[in-house]
Specification:
Elements (H helix, E strand, L loop, with lengths): L8 H35 L3 H29 L1 H21 L3 H29 L2 H31 L4 H5 L1 H15 L14 H19 L6 H23 L13 H30 L5 H7 L1 H21 L2 H17 L9 H29 L6 H26 L10 H29 L32
Amino acid sequence: MPEVRIGSSRGRWILLTTVLGSSMAMLDSTVVNVALPRIGRDLNASLGALQWTVNAYMVTLAGLILLGGSLGDRYGRRRIFVLGVVWFAAASLLCGIAPNSVLLIAARALQGVGGALLTPGSLALIQASFHPDDRSRAVGLWSGFGGIGAAVGPFLGGWLVSGPGWRWVFLLNVPLALLCVPVALRHVPESADENAHGRFDVLGAVLGALSLALLTYALIEAQGGTAAVVVSAVLGLAAAAAFVYVERHRPDPMLPPDVFASRQFTAVNLVTLCVYAAFGGFFFLTALQLQVAVGWSPLAAGTALLPTTILMLLFSSASGALSDRTGPRLPLTVGPLLCAVAMLLMLRVGPGANYLTDVLPALLVMGAGMVTLVAPLTATVLASVDTARAGVASGINNAAARAAGLVAVAALPLLAGMGPDAYRSASAFDASFNRAMPICAGVLVLGSVLAFFLVTARPTAGCQHPERHTHCSLTAPPLEGERAGP
């Protein structure tokens, strides 16, 4: 039984290590969007290259995150966590010194591999290290500090881009890793799952990532109408079909098909696909809109996005408690509708927009919608499966959200008619943005309709509740780990 107490010196070191590690990935997910216009100008990149700057990271992260958790259980959670931190920092260094967009995109894909190793490991280390009586409080402190990091992210990203330059958005991860790794090796105990085996679904992970990469390429390059686009789309669909086949026939699949036997689990993942597709497209385009069309600096654009994250930091815990009483259907129906209203309010944001009257109202409504739905979403995922499968269910839901976001970043500019140089023209980008926001709102309305008709209305008695009460990520619902016993 783990004996580390939260008030001990070692307990504080463990918390510091996990906060530093998770903050690297959390900051990266919030600051890169703000840097995109400067990256495009400095590297003479097309809009497609900017899409890949976001999506190359998301492809490998979404495809490998389930495998990353399994590797930690088998080979040691501290070992895989440290490997992930070192890998992430090395890839971040490559991003920071990339001389062109091709090398930047390749480094971002490597960065996603590191993220897939360290992201599940932060929570797993806390669950495995702390005494059962302190575990809940430790998770709460970790998620709270992580939430503060997420809230600071857009402001920090804007300050770095406006000051030292966009390369420091990535280079910042190197000193964080140099602090995190020695502390982890000295103060964090090693742990592993004694029942874990050496069989890993590497084929499933590769097929999943390959299908996402091929389909993303087809969507981003679709306007060219070349034979390569058609071939990529066909191969992407074939890889997706092969992934489903492999998962159905492997004895130990990464994504167990029988978990979808739960109607509630299937329904909430459909809602997840809708809402996080809309969120992914919204935050990608909004960071560009505020700089390209409105004409704000990266610092102003990053700071402008703070209200959404701050609302989640302050009220996500209360939202989770409220949904325990009302049941999941109401918040999962109302939350997407509020976010859809926010995206329609963003139609007011264009050249000459005023922050207080045009931007802030939309972001406050957006924050209210995310507060309403994110915590109940996670709770419903956990309640829909057996307690022993909580970690797997949460991992699937997290990966689904990331996959939906990257597909949206690839598809939305195509659907909105954005050309490869759209971000270089304020008027052209503003017109495309005004076509994109109603599309995002429509996808959210679809998610709301699915929740109303498919998600159970009543609270689930005796269900497992999330250990994380603070939810601040804008790209995916929070990961929950396996339920450890005393």
